[in-house]
Amino acid sequence: MIARVPRISAFYGIAIWLYHDEIHHLGRPHFDARYADDEASIDIETMAILAGELPPRAARLVTDWAEEHRAELRENWDLARRHKPLRRIDPLR
User: Fold this and answer.
1) Average confidence (pLDDT) over 62-90
2) What is the C-alpha separation between 81 and 21, in angstroms, rounded?
3) Is residue 69 included in any domain, yes or no?
4) Number of domains forming the structure of the chain
5) What is the reported pLDDT for 27?
6) Are strands 86-87 and 2-3 parallel, antiparallel or unpaired?
7) Of all residues in the chain, what percent carry a pLDDT higher than 90?
């Protein structure tokens, strides 16, 4: 399925967004995870939090999901940089 907006997945109250043009990350491949009032930007390659914060449990769930779907995150990053529609990624099960 194609995502028309940068929200590419959601699970357990966590929404995953991918924006390629955030100036403060200098083009570094990353995605954003939002849980309640918390948000963090996470590096696709290292899974390091670049900015923001998530509660520990939400951070573990996001990392587990991202490690499972790293190739799809990389593909979406490439699509976003080419201004193409993003693909949805299955939620954590």
Assistant:
1) 95
2) 8
3) yes
4) 1
5) 75
6) antiparallel
7) 76
Answer for the pair 66, 44: CB distance below 8 angstroms, yes or no. yes
Q: Look up residue 70 and give its two tokens.
A: 């790293």
List, in sequence order, every residue forming a beta bridge with 3; answer none if it has no partner. 86
Domain that holds residue 83: 2-32+44-87
Q: Specify the amino acid at residue 10.
A: A
Query: Which tokens is 31 given?
Result: 């995605």
Terminal alpha carbon distance of the chain: 18
3-class SS letters over 36-81: CCEEEEEECCCCCEEEEECCHHHHHHHHHHHHHCHHHHHHHHHHHH
CA distance 63 to 87: 19
With tokens 């100036």, the residue in question is: 23
